[in-house]
User: Which sequence fits this backbone?
């Protein structure tokens, strides 16, 4: 497949328009020019390194989907011979993933397809050969009864083999993570579809590594998660990182924290209130710095669960202070901890939830004011501190504002907005 086209060029076949955009966005963010074509009459102008075709075939009968993929690929391969070929499928296996993968393999001459549907950032994993959505088997979710393209099985191999006559091999996480995938594939006759379990972005990165080691280029088959992994390989960029400090114990703030509990790119650091009184912050500094230096967002909070907010009276009695004094003590600790962390591992933005924490951080940094630039998620003003050495974006939020997705949207805003 490679060797005659533009070095590093990419061709993606998606089965709907939004999926086509999802497939190309991470490549574009990495500086690669990406064109998404909406119909078969396109003409490649030579400026785009990545071409994403929309077959609009998800709801078609299988034979019609095969024919459309074959026709589009015939036209595409006349114009380029790409180094990387991707069949973008739905992360919940809707549509005709097996039929379209087979059609694309035949059109491209690929003898091996590496199938990794997982999209960890969206809660879609593959474990023991099955697709899970936020921990639920696919067939126990709403996707099983999709009005246009219902899914009848959570088993990835079963779905593909119900639509294709090609042999299919299942690969578990142990084999993938041990780096044994290329050697395993070499021992099987082709053509072959390889169904690969993946639970993290690192697993999807391992799929790309395996693809590079095969003697002939495989067809990559996956959702936006696998496309993102290819983007990380071809156009590595440092992810923007947010240091989020949540001092509020409101129910909504706790829901926002809980919503990020299993996010693969967010590390959570819980502050034990007893350490606030002893002043022991070293382990917290190290944990936060490790997360930020590792390219992850870091969420710092003092409330481990919904019940903890009702333990304030006991804490006040234990330390013989008033509720107001307790709040001031915690806020001051978080403010100083934030100052120390950003001096060691400078994040790309600060998110401060709770008025007391926001003012404590501003004092710790020596800020004299706040210049407002705009607003995120309708309830999160953002701007910059004035009069101090910290010039990067700062976002503030009252504890009870927003919904459970607000903090996640803040992280996405910083990741995607190059101007902040």
Assistant:
């Amino acid at each position: 497949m490679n060797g005659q086209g533009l070095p590093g060029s990419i061709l993606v076949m998606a089965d709907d328009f939004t999926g086509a955009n999802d497939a190309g966005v991470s490549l574009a963010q990495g500086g690669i020019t990406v064109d998404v074509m909406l119909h078969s009459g396109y003409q490649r102008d030579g400026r785009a390194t990545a071409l994403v075709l929309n077959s609009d075939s998800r709801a078609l009968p299988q034979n019609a989907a095969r024919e459309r993929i074959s026709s589009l690929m015939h036209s595409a391969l006349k114009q380029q011979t790409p180094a990387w070929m991707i069949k973008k499928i739905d992360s919940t296996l809707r549509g005709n993933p097996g039929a379209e993968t087979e059609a694309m393999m035949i059109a491209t001459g690929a003898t091996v397809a590496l199938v990794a549907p997982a999209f960890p950032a969206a809660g879609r994993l593959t474990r023991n050969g099955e697709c899970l959505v936020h921990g639920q088997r696919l067939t126990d979710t709403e996707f099983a009864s999709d009005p246009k393209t219902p899914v009848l099985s959570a088993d990835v191999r079963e779905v593909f083999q119900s639509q294709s006559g090609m042999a299919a091999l299942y690969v578990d996480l142990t084999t993938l993570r041990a780096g044994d995938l290329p050697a395993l594939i070499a021992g099987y006759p082709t053509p072959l579809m390889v169904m690969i379990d993946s639970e993290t972005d690192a697993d999807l990165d391992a799929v790309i590594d395996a693809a590079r080691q095969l003697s002939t280029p495989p067809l990559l088959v996956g959702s936006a998660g696998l496309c993102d992994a290819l983007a990380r390989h071809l156009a590595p960029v440092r992810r923007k990182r947010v240091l989020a400090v949540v001092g509020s114990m409101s129910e909504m703030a706790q829901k926002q924290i809980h919503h990020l509990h299993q996010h693969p790119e967010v590390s959570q650091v819980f502050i034990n209130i007893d350490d606030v009184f002893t002043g022991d912050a070293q382990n917290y500094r190290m944990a936060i710095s490790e997360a930020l230096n590792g390219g992850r967002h870091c969420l710092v909070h003092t409330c481990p669960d919904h019940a903890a907010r009702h333990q304030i009276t006991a804490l006040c009695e234990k330390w013989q202070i008033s509720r107001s004094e307790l709040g001031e003590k915690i806020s001051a600790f978080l403010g100083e901890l934030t100052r120390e962390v950003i001096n060691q591992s400078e994040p790309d933005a600060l998110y401060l939830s709770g008025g007391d924490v926001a003012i404590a951080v501003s004092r710790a940094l020596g800020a004299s004011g706040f210049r407002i630039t705009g607003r995120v998620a309708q309830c999160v003003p953002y701007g910059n501190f004035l009069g101090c050495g910290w010039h990067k974006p700062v976002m503030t939020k009252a504890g009870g504002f927003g919904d459970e997705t607000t903090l996640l949207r803040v992280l996405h805003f910083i990741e995607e907005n190059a101007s902040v």
The longest strand covers residues 369-376.
